[in-house]
Design goal:
heterodimer; A: 148 residues; mainly alpha; 8 helices; 0% strand; globular; B: 129 residues; 7 helices
């Protein structure tokens, strides 16, 4: 019998050989314009908030809330995954990817119940992001406190 | 509405598009050229944003590109770090623990709330074999 590891490796070699060299250029182009577009939508929402007289901090928060809300529901409707397949990092890197990373596993593990399924799996990816993000911010604050 | 359209800084829109796009290209190269999982890339981005934000470097990018710098996940890290520094100015040492999460509270709460609601209304799709 073939060792499954070997099979996996030869399959990977096969994929590497078969897949054309160009997709990285195409992927980067798609990531660029989709990611740029999402940021531009954010900038328009931001400009509207400023126009309504809100301060920078609140305007930024509203931009995040709206983009997160939209992408959460697009994920729930299975639309975001299609965008993600096309855009790659273009939809992963903006805050939309953070929302998607919450809804996707939650949907998948819904059958395991609402507490340990949805409630726990929501944080498969978002958890690490919050752990490292918040921990670094605490470190930044402490270092800033010492050296300011 | 007319007045709003006139108030938009269209150069800033362009900068947001270009800078946001470039930040995403870097992520795409990481996906294609390394074996990093998306989760690791998001963690790297948020941590990098917090460090660059803490050093005050990311602020220049935010001033230049607005949402082009704040919407990518590096901006989330920047926001956390900026909040921590501002809270230290205001409350002293304890601010380091308050500021970050406080500044990002809206985004975190929205992500949890909308994420939960969206998961509830979604129909689990059949796994393709």
């Amino acid at each position: 019998m073939d060792n499954p590891q070997d099979t996996k490796k030869s399959y990977q070699d096969y994929i590497d050989k078969k897949s054309p060299n160009s997709p990285i250029i195409k992927n980067c182009f798609n990531a660029f314009w989709v990611g740029g577009l999402i940021c531009m939508i954010g900038q328009i929402i931001n400009a509207f908030c400023k126009y309504k007289g809100l301060d920078t901090q609140i305007a930024g928060t509203i931009v995040s809330i709206i983009l997160i809300g939209i992408s959460a529901f697009l994920t729930g409707l299975n639309i975001f995954n299609k965008i993600g397949k096309f855009a790659g990092a273009g939809s992963l890197i903006p805050i939309t990817g953070f929302a998607n990373s919450i809804v996707s596993p939650a949907m998948e593990y819904k059958s395991e119940g609402y507490v340990m399924g949805v409630g726990a799996k929501m944080f498969t990816v978002a958890g690490p992001v919050l752990v490292y993000g918040i921990s670094s911010s605490v470190l930044v604050g402490i270092i800033y406190f010492i050296f300011r | 509405m007319q007045e709003f359209l006139q108030s938009i800084n269209y150069m800033q829109l362009l900068y947001a598009f270009i800078v946001g796009g470039i930040i995403c290209i870097i992520g795409q190269i990481l996906i294609d050229k390394t074996k990093l999982t998306p989760a690791r890339i998001l963690v790297i981005y948020v941590t990098a944003g917090a460090i660059l934000g803490g050093l005050g470097i990311y602020q220049y990018l935010v001033d230049f590109a607005g949402a082009g710098a704040t919407v990518p996940l590096t901006g989330f890290g920047y926001n956390l770090a900026k909040g921590a520094k501002e809270a230290v100015d205001q409350y002293g040492f304890v601010g380091a623990f308050i500021g970050g999460t406080k500044a990002a509270a809206g985004g975190i709460a929205a992500a949890v709330f909308f994420g939960y609601i969206a998961s509830l209304i979604s129909k689990p799709k059949m796994k393709k074999q």
